[in-house]
Amino acid sequence: MLEMGSRSHVFLLIFVSQILAILGQTNSNDATALFALKSSWNNLPPNWEGSDPCGSSWAGLICDNSRVTSIKLSGMGLEGSQFGDLSSLTALQILDLSNNVGLKGTLPPSIGNLKNLTTLILVGCSFFGPIPESIGSLQQLVFISLTSNSFTGPIPPSIGNLSKLSWLDLSDNKINGTIPISQGSALGLDSLVNTRHLHLSKNQLSGLIQPQLFNASMKLIHVILDHNQLTGEIPESLGSLQNLEILRLDWNSLNGSVPSELSNVTSLSELYLSNNNLNGSIPDLASMNLLTYVGMSNNSFNASDVPDWFTKLPLLKTIYMENTTLQGQIPVDLFSRPNLETIGLANNKLNGTLDIGTRYGNNLTLDLRNNSIKDFTQKTGYNMNISLAGNPICDGTGATAKYCAIQISNDSFSSPLQCPAMSCNSDKILSPTCKCLYPYTGTLHFFSLSFSNLDNSSYFTTLAGSMMSAFLSNGLPVDSVSLSDPTVDVYSYLQIEAQIFPSTQDSFNHTSIPSIGYLLNRNPFQLQYFGPFFFTSESYCCFADGNKKSSSHTGIIIGVSVGCAVLVLLTFCAGLYAFRQRKMAKRAGHSSNPFESWDRDTSGAVPQLKGARWFSFDEIRKCTNNFSESNCIGSGGYGKVFKGTLTTGEVVAIKRAQHGSMQGAFEFKTEIELLSRIHHKNVVSLVGFCYEQGEQMLVYEYISKGTLRESLSVKPKFQLEWTRRLKIALDAARGLAYLHELADPPIIHRDVKSNNILLDDHLTAKVADFGLSKLLRDEDKGHVTTQVKGTLGYLDPEYYMSQQLTEKSDVYSFGVVLLELITARAPIERGKHIVRLVAETIYDSKDNSKLYQLIDPRIGPGSKLEGVDRLFTLGMRCVNESGAERPSMGEAVKEIESILELASLSKYTEGDLTSSSYEDTTQLRLDDFYNDKAFDYSGKFPSGGMNTTY
Ligand SMILES: *[C@@H]1O[C@H](CO)[C@@H](O)[C@H](O)[C@H]1NC(C)=O
Ligand SMILES: *[C@@H]1O[C@H](CO)[C@@H](O)[C@H](O)[C@H]1NC(C)=O
Ligand SMILES: *[C@@H]1O[C@H](CO)[C@@H](O)[C@H](O)[C@H]1NC(C)=O
Ligand SMILES: *[C@@H]1O[C@H](CO)[C@@H](O)[C@H](O)[C@H]1NC(C)=O
Ligand SMILES: *[C@@H]1O[C@H](CO)[C@@H](O)[C@H](O)[C@H]1NC(C)=O
């Protein structure tokens, strides 16, 4: 009965929500699916309330055209088992549920409905059962990571259908059977011609690695098959993989000899063959000049002297060849290899006298336990980590020597403590930047690594740096990253504990945590030294925006009804409020001082100010050092801008109008009221104002990194690489789209330029300085503002001619900013306008080489500039002579988002390159890019844009 009751509640709920959804921005099928999810899963984000998921921006969702296209709920602590509810979100492109250990159940065949899915990430959940065959019908899939679940059964051969798949990771499950290959009409993994990552480690795969699995048309760079039960020989066909960088076949039951064709793979950087039954002679690796890591321990190779290539491979850092019947003397040359960190040769038959010469590195670890070495030339005064225990030299009296110790010390690195005198109360943790915060804590699991010296902090510093830069370039509010306790586990996976500290508050909210989780498991990193990885975490402890208790269905019903009632009430209140406002405004209009009725001490609470504070003239004077020149950070026709520090420590920018540019008191008040309602992360927000002693001042948040113009100038303070520039373009576009489309009343900026786009600490761009310009309302009233406002070079020619101001004038100026971003040129340089320059260049040349010459060289190297053509195109569309032909800011946002997605994708591909080959290959790709003649520019631009004259 109870069960029945709660079911009918769910139906009622779904019914109610459908009705509501019709009124909202969410497609009703999608809304139904989400409500079903909501009623069956626990711990969904607290803002999953109301009837319109897209319209009310439920955390973790992204919608496009009222369809849900992305769900990212990593690390939320979700509990539930009904995956099927997701299967009707047919527009879904990205699904990331990683690190919700409470999510269990099987993947239903209906997952095959998600035809537009590109990215499926379920790392670290508790899904079990077979992977449905229908996954092979998701033709758009680029990225699958099902790592660390309990999937069983075989690998569905249908995965071979996924021609776009770049990353396939099924590691750490209980998958059994053989690795499927094509047979007759049935496809297998050998048809994955675009796959770069094949990670099937830590499963129960058995049978042969069929020779057909690899062929020369494949793009594989990482083949990771360790810790299975694979048998038979290593296929010769591996030799045809010309891009392979990491090969892990260790911990299987492979036998036979290592095929000589393997030496064909000269791109290989890390080779793991340990713990098999390989026999025959030790393979000759001398041609593999990029090898950094070789592991071949515990095989049954023929007895052999130390092979030549030990001393020949230039980049070799790590050799493990324990228990492989190596014999004879170790050549002294080996120890002078500059890059070596670890030589693990325990349990062999090495004999004679050990001579390490004088040119060995201090960080070298040499493990020679259980060999037959009788003597050691440098018995005293050597400075490396060495163990000879179990050799004749350590018999009898020798046993007490330092080099006979059994333990090889391996002190572990952890991020140095920068602020030793500090400690945190409660359960907060001290960040590397000395703040007490609630970090998001998890573990990075690396499938491979090129190095072995875990004491060398520079590797981890580099890693933390790469992570930070990925977080920041994706706009995530991360203050710092602390890494500690690197350990190589029994699977030879490097694990590192990571603490990720929040920047905007003490703790992360329900939007940031899944974005961090997504970024880490989607692997968009350019990592030196480290191979591919996955990230696991517990659910986050301390969400800034609260944690919802799992509510009963009745609770939701009541919630909805109360919600409706509140809605009605609010609508009523809003009406009342507007009425009151109008009355107040009327009164204010008659009064000589509209501010006199404001209670100064509590003015922050005056409702129409939405948080903007009132400042006394004295307060401002003090905090700007009496408006001293040294505090002045800008000036213009309206007056000057000063930097000031409030008594609270908050740093602000104060805009002080000079006498000529002051407005009437009522206009000033109206303006403050409007500005105080503008709240968007890409728009500089108003902190407060001062209206006293004949002064009009606006107090804004201070944006630390200055203007975009400065950072594009000849000597920028920091480098803006390609994706960063795209991110800045996106931020600015979003800010403007907000002003145009969401602000009420809409605001036309009228002075969009690179000098009015500011960059904060995290290089998030914010649109500034729509402040003292008049608002759209004045225009409506027919104020004869014949004076065209704006800055030369950014001025919309149509507006200039017609004096009809529309949003499209901002779009024009924004187009100029886009061209500036790509070329770093000022809008007018040597008398030539940038729009004209680009237009002429496009028309002048058949190929694009001339156009590409306009690109700011500092945008690379290391960038592929994926999408630069599209950004050029967008810029030119924005500066179309006819306003009607220009895109809206909302359209511009969408296009830049899509370019950024493309560029980040290619950046991650680039990140796959390992340190040794990274530089060269990148260079090559850039050259390819510039030589790409196939790409035709003309015809992509509407002709109207070309004829613009100045
Ligand atoms: C899937 O993507 C295609 C191409 O972008 C689009 O035309 C189609 O509408 C999408 N399907 C759904 C269900 O959204
Ligand atoms: C795979 O595992 C399942 C149990 O999960 C078992 O029934 C099946 O026989 C196994 N298949 C193979 C090929 O080992
Ligand atoms: C080795 O590489 C060459 C090209 O570098 C290729 O022609 C040849 O087929 C490869 N050998 C094998 C066994 O794949
Ligand atoms: C040495 O290697 C063989 C396989 O070649 C393995 O069976 C044996 O356990 C290994 N011995 C040690 C001490 O690891
Ligand atoms: C070391 O071992 C090799 C091969 O087992 C043998 O020929 C040689 O005589 C040994 N050398 C010494 C000094 O014992």
TrEMBL record:
Where are the bilayer-spanning segments?
Answer: 556-579
Q: By its UniProt entry, which InterPro entries does this protein fall under?
A: Kinase-like_dom_sf (IPR011009), Leu-rich_rpt (IPR001611), Leu-rich_rpt_typical-subtyp (IPR003591), LRR_dom_sf (IPR032675), LRR_N_plant-typ (IPR013210), Prot_kinase_dom (IPR000719), Protein_kinase_ATP_BS (IPR017441), Ser-Thr/Tyr_kinase_cat_dom (IPR001245)
| Signal peptide span | 1-24
Where in or outside the cell it occurs: the entry states: Membrane
Q: SUPFAM superfamilies of this UniProt entry?
A: L domain-like, Protein kinase-like (PK-like)
Report if keyword Hydrolase is assigned: no
Tell me which UniProt keywords the record has, alphabetically.
ATP-binding, Glycoprotein, Kinase, Leucine-rich repeat, Membrane, Nucleotide-binding, Repeat, Serine/threonine-protein kinase, Signal, Transferase, Transmembrane, Transmembrane helix
Please report the stretch or stretches of sequence annotated as the Protein kinase domain: 627-900
Instruction: Quote the protein name from its UniProt record.
Output: non-specific serine/threonine protein kinase
Q: Which organism is it from?
A: Solanum pennellii
What lineage does the source organism belong to?
Answer: Eukaryota, Viridiplantae, Streptophyta, Embryophyta, Tracheophyta
Which gene does this sequence derive from? LOC107007162
